[in-house]
Amino acid sequence: MEGVVSVLGRKLGSHWSVEHVGDQRASGALWRLPIAALRLHCLDTGVGRQDRTEAGLLVQVHRRVFPGDVRRLVEALAAERPDKSLSANLVVAAPYIGQAARHLLSEAGINYVDLTGNVRLEVRPLPLLLHHRGADSDPRRVPARVASLKGVKAGRVVRTLCDGRPPYSLRRIADQARVSPGYVSKVVSLLAHEGYVERVPREGTEGAVWVDWASGARYFPYGFVTTVEHALLLRRWARDCSLLGRQPWRLYRVRGGIERAVSELAACGLRTVVTGELAAAQFVSGIRVAVVVCYVQSIARVAAAARLRPVDLAGNVLLVEPRDESVFWIPWRAGGVGWVSASQAAVDCLSGPEPMPTAGRALVRWMVSAPERETLLR
Predict the structure, then answer these.
(1) Torsion-angle region of residue 109: left (phi > 0), alpha (psi -120 to 50) or beta?
(2) What's the rounded Cα separation, in Å, for the pair 255 and 159?
(3) Is 154:148 a contact under the CB 8 Å cutoff?
């Protein structure tokens, strides 16, 4: 708690005082974790009215904060106080709070603070609004873990996590992604530290090993991934990769529009897999398709076979040679061409040029609401 008081004191500045006035046993929605009471006092009486210079905060202290923890807290608060009065001056505190959890806390209107300086503090009735960005990665993270999702193998692991429904064993992820279990463990550790997945911890560490599915509570051994924040994870993956940034591509023009372009690609007799807006439109209706984006093994051979005319602007076919052949592994076929999985289409749209991200966001929303995630594999 001393760390929380110190961080708030530094960020608020000399016009405010922060005092730890004691601990208390909370009830109802907040009973699970210790609650500390803080008092904020405005030392500059010119900031607001005389009767609005002091307010109390309830600080809920965590060792770690996962997105699932935030959702459970929001649901519990809403059940107890639908008017949101219970969360008005609540502060969630931890040594580090990942980007995914911070995003959900902000959406729910809940304050937070971590020891790296990530702060959201909106206190009523005080005239106080403080948003401060600290670290974007956990400083306690072990260096042996992978540092980003830019690599080919990391992308395979993320796609495997996003295209199915947990729980997953590390072995199952490794077999489907065709990487070693050791590497899967490193990627999952990174995602767990950043709050995008939850997995069963080692015995004696914090976290629950009982998972309440529709069929009842089940026990999973250490390492099983029990929760995946699909939408947040796809956006995180898209930040680390780029559709056109690190792989060869070429723009072409086909007379006759999108349908004629797909027909020419299907008739060329070479391996082609469609991604981008057109792939997203196979799952979500109403997506406007401006360009057919297609993964191919050889841009020159497919362009010649499909009689595509190269252009610099106003093209309607974009051929891309992927860095990783795994985009060809799981495609389903329709209309004579292959189609990437939903997660690959989503990340390609999110990391592609405008207006593709709009289609990516629509597809992510659909994926989260899909009743059975196994259907995403087609």
Answers:
(1) left
(2) 34
(3) yes
Distance CA 239, CA 341 (A): 19
CATH of the domain at 196: 1.10.10.10
Burial (CB count <10 Å: 0-12, 13-18, 19+), residue 330: buried
Residue 355: cis peptide before it, omega within 30 degrees of 0: yes
Same domain flag for 260 and 230:
no
Model pLDDT for residues 7-41, shown as the tens digit of each residue:
888 888 777 788 777 776 555 555 455 677 787 77
Which domain, by its residues, includes 185?
152-240
Give the pLDDT confidence score for residue 111 in this predicted structure. 92
Both 256 and 184 in one domain: the answer is: no
What is the reported pTM?
0.68
Identify whether residues 49 and 160 lie together within a single domain: no
Same-domain check for residues 188 and 223: yes
Looking at residue 269, its pLDDT comes to 87
CA 300/CA 170 separation, integer angstroms: 39
Instruction: Select the highest-mean-pLDDT range: 68-72, 211-215, 370-374.
Output: 68-72
Distance, CA of 322 to chain centre:
23
Query: Are residues 223 and 265 located together in one domain of the fold?
Result: no
Report if residue 145 sits inside a domain. Answer: no
Domain boundary among 102, 132, 162: 132
Largest CA distance in the chain: 79
Closest CA to 318 of 267, 227, 373, 253: 253
Q: Tell me: do 276 and 325 sit in the same domain.
A: yes
Q: Which two tokens stand for residue 201?
A: 């911890």
End residue of a domain, out of 240, 257, 278: 240
